[in-house]
Structure formats: structure tokens, C-alpha cells
Amino acid sequence: MGKLLIRGADLMTMRDDTFIIHDGAIVIEDDKFIFVGEEKDLPQEWEYDKIIEAKDQVIMPGMINTHTHAAMTLLRSYADDLPLMEWLEKRIWPVEARLKAEDVYWGSMVAILEMIKSGTTCFADMYFYMDEVAKAVEESGIRGVLSHGMIGVGPNGEKDLAVGRQFCKDWEGKADGRIRTMLAPHAPYTCPPDYLRKVLEIADELKVPIHIHLCETETEIKNIKEQYGKTPIQLVDEVGLFDYPVLAAHCVHLSDKDFEILKKAKALGIAHNPQSNMKLASGIAPVQRMLNEGLTVGIGTDGASSNNNLNMLEEMSTAALLQKVGTMDSTALPAGECLRMATIYGARAIGQDAELGTLEVGKKADLIIFDFSKPHLVPRHNIMAHTVYSAQSSDILTVIVNGQILMENREVKTIDEERVLFEAERTSKELLRR
Ligand SMILES: CSC[C@H]1O[C@@H](n2cnc3c(O)ncnc32)[C@H](O)[C@@H]1O
Ligand SMILES: [Zn+2]
Predict the structure, then answer these.
(1) Does residue 431 belong to any structural domain of this protein?
(2) How many CB atoms lie within 10 A of CB 36?
(3) Where along this sequence does the record place binding of substrate (predicted)?
(4) Can you give the CATH number for the domain in which 373 is found?
(5) pTM of the model as a whole
(6) What are phi and psi of 356, to 5 degrees?
């Protein structure tokens, strides 16, 4: 691959020193940025294989969805308006028990299509039949941090340990480094301490992080306290979880003591899922306090069955609005901070901030380009606020991952869109009939 030049755009780099660059240019060679700056500073002698003219357009790093169950697109709008445990136990788990590998492939493909079209370039996924998710990531060109979900209670606990371990061995670093892996014990209420200890032994062996649901609902806190006499955070801390890199989804209900534990964790990322937390009426995560206290917080959508889409633009604006109303403080979680959560903080939460999350020379070339010549993006007082509060996914023209153009002028180049929609519809119907 030669050099790709994108010029004429405003850049939101997400770097602390030069957050916004006007009349900017970006040059990509192979999978990396080799120039990010003002167009006037481009080296004169460089020649390009392709030039994208991006006047009236805005470029930012690709968004990182830090918590998904991609194939749950198949269950979109299948079970709505329920609390978490009733939703899981009565509606979702019975159907998931009938899942086949092929379902997960098409469910993940349609999820990836939706994510690319709404500006996500990397997603952290926890589900079943993860070889299929990995294949979908490999073929589509997106980036994924993938993990086999393990349920310690019930008949598959031991098998899940073996499958999760083998998945990491098979896929870590594959697809030109776009696939990274984690181990995923589902939650403290499905993975008791002895089981978690076994997961940590594998994490020790393979040096991969842990992806887990933590402190999502009041019911979870109450049940764990009744069973063990401590909060879920205190429980998993005693098992040694926070001696390992952890990506913790939710963390909605935290005590002061929990905060102290989290602040001491070795490498913790929290995935905040505001729409899922609202829809399941789980509560409002104390995100502004987490950030104030130095915790790393990314944004996630959770699965499409509790959201009901995978749109990170919506998730950013919901995160901002929810913190404001939750704290009764309109200065809480401003737009710039939401953008960081969706990019560089998300990269930190998955342990990849050295490679992802900013437009910066030497980093992996993952970016998205917005068309700002739209009525709802005029006048251009503040491009950060526009991106969080006004932009829509249809404004995203171009998506690049690892230097490869996945979507150009809204045409996804790596996926047969019509086929994926057809197969996802077909497999979801078959799954529900099975
Ligand atoms: C073991 S694979 C993942 C497992 O998690 C379930 N799930 C989806 N959304 C949530 C959520 O918000 N909290 C807890 N568990 C969730 C999914 O259906 C799979 O069974
Ligand atoms: Zn989840």
C-alpha cells in the first residue's frame, strides 16, 4: 500500500496539546499515520497514491465501543421493557441456549455493518461462538477485542474455561493485529470466587486482560451482599481480580469503599453503557465522579437487545445528558470529555492507548470523516459539541481502519450489505422458531 492523503478538513486529534487543527491534512502509509497537521506543513516532495479532498469535513479518531455482545443484533427488539434479571433469565438465556455458530456469524456481521456505518472502528465483545465473531472481524476489516463469555454456574463452566483459553490462543494478534483477546467471566453472580480464581490462572498464563460485567443493578449488589457479606467490587478484589488488567462493564452502583478499591486497581478500564442502563432501569453510573477520581472510563452500547442499536454517536450524547440530569449539574461531562471517552479513554480502557485513540503520527490509522455541510451542523461554532449533540451517523462519509478504507462516501467496501441483511433476518427467524 502506498501513501493516502486526506486534506482540507478540520481535525479533532484528541491529543491534549493540539486538540483541533484547522485546514488539516493526514497522511497514511500502510497501517499507520505518518503525518497529522496543517496542510501547509505537508512535506513538498511526497507523492500520493490516493487523495481524498475533505473540505467542509471533520476528521476524528474512530470510535471504540468498549462493551458489546455483537450477535445480539439477532435479538434486537425481541424482549423490551424489562429489568435485567427477568430479561436475561426469562427471555434472553433460553434463546441463547439454542444459538448455533452460523447465527453468531450473521448476527456479528450485521452488527459490524451497523458499527462501521455509525463510526465505530473497534469493539470489545463478549459472547458465544467467538470463532465466528473473529471471522467476521477478519473479513470486514474492523478491529475487535474479543472474548468468549464464561458462565461458571451451570453445566458448561469447565468447558467455558477451556473454550475461552483456546480462543485467546487461536486468535490473539490475528488479522494483521486487528484482533486482540480477553477472558470474559460473565459476572460475579454467574462466576463464583472459586471459578474466578480459575479464570485468573489462565489470565496469568496467557497474559490477557479480563472483561466482566460488574455492579450493574441494585439487585446484583443486594444478592451478592446477602450471599457473601460484601459488595461485588470487594468480592472480586479479594479474589485478586484487580491485580490483572480488567475491562469492567457498567459499575453503576459503587460505594465509597468500592471507589477506593477501583482507584488502587492495576489497570482498570470501565465501560459506561448509558442507554442500556437506562433501558433496563439499572441506574445512573457515577461517571463524572469516576473521571474526577482518575478512573479510566470508555463508552459502550452493550448488546442491541438492551439499547437497541450500536450507535456510539447516540451513546456519547446520552452519556452527557444523563450525567447532567443525574448530578443536576449542566457542566457535568462536557462534549470534549465525551469525545475522549469514545476514543482515547476507550483505547486506554482496552489497554491499547499506545496504538489507538488519537490522530497521531505512529499510531494505527483508524479514523472517521464527517460531512459537516448539513443543516443540523450549521453554524459551526463548536465542532466538538456538534459531533456529540447534533451529528448523525448518516453524516459519516468515510471510515478507515488499520489504513484500509472500509467505507467511502457511505459505501461499505468490505461487506456485501444486501446479503448480510438477508442472512441476519433469516437466521434470527430460524433461531426464534428452533
Ligand atoms: C456470557 S456471554 C455474555 C452474556 O451476557 C448477556 N448480557 C447481555 N447484556 C447484558 C447485561 O447488560 N448484563 C448482563 N449480562 C448481559 C448476554 O445475553 C450473554 O448471555
Ligand atoms: Zn453486557
Answers:
(1) no
(2) 24
(3) 96, 186, 216, 302
(4) 2.30.40.10
(5) 0.98
(6) -130, 170
